[in-house]
From TrEMBL:
InterPro entries: AB_hydrolase_fold, LYPA1-2/EST-like, PLipase/COase/thioEstase. It comes from the Bacteria. Residues 22-219 form the Phospholipase/carboxylesterase/thioesterase domain. GO terms for molecular function: hydrolase activity. This is Dienelactone hydrolase family protein. Belongs to the AB hydrolase superfamily. AB hydrolase 2 family. It comes from Microbacterium flavum. The keyword Endoplasmic reticulum does not apply. Keywords: Hydrolase.
Length: 226
């Protein structure tokens, strides 16, 4: 399996201090390629305040001259049949395991946890859900994708069918079409899927999509409190 370093605990941004987190659900934000933990953290004012929000920093530095951080190398992402693609899938799994290790270090095991990831962060969020479907309550996948390959826990995921919101732009030219096709086929067989394709939207997030995400998160709060 690909080597992915441990996440930097000190780099995580939290919406509140430790003494205000007990008994509240946690929403973890996972940024995209070449970005950083502060990017999605700017969404906190638009998210339901009942959540404790933590934005984590991806563990890898992209090749020069790309800025920021990445969850896994991008080589092989576009080719679903190559050896590089298998290596890329293994790297996504390793990144998801690194995220789970960070969660184990920082959060009470009884805390309800949801994931919100953009692009690469969305792929890692979905992979973490696949690896531990009993640990994560839901996923918000923005402009992300499911990596190919089977995991031993996929059957358990299909039985639990946790809620997943998938939002993407109709004009997104970053995520390869093959990855979109695979995700479109795979997700409905394993999760309770909702979401939208936004006309005119590129590889980004719009105000309309944010409103849909907030509505999805408010429904999840209702599920958790019920």
């Amino acid at each position: 399996m690909s080597e992915i370093p441990a996440l930097d605990d000190a780099a995580a941004l939290w919406s509140c201090p430790p003494e205000e987190r007990a008994g509240r659900p946690l929403l973890i934000l996972l940024h995209g390629y070449g970005s950083h933990e502060g990017d999605l953290f700017r969404l906190v004012p638009f998210l339901p305040p009942e959540f404790v929000v933590a934005a984590v920093r991806a563990p890898l530095s992209p090749p020069f001259p790309a800025p920021g951080w990445s969850w896994f190398p991008i080589e092989g992402v576009a080719d679903a049949a190559s050896t590089a693609a298998a290596d890329a899938s293994a790297a996504v799994t390793a990144a998801a395991e690194s995220l789970r290790a960070w969660l184990g270090r920082t959060t009470d095991p009884a805390t309800a946890v949801g994931l919100l990831g953009f692009s690469q962060g969305g792929a890692v969020a979905l992979q973490a859900l696949r690896l531990a479907p009993e640990r994560f309550s839901f996923v918000v996948n923005l402009a992300g994708f499911v990596v190919p390959g089977e995991l031993p826990t996929d059957a358990a995921l299909a039985e639990l069918r946790p809620p997943v919101f998938w939002g993407r732009g109709a004009r997104d030219e970053v995520i390869p079409p093959g990855r979109i096709a695979h995700t479109t086929e795979w997700l409905p067989r394993h999760v309770d899927l909702s979401g939208r394709v936004y006309p005119g939207l590129t590889h980004s997030v719009s105000e309309e999509e944010l409103a849909d995400v907030r509505a999805f998160l408010e429904k999840r709060l209702g599920d958790l409190s019920g």
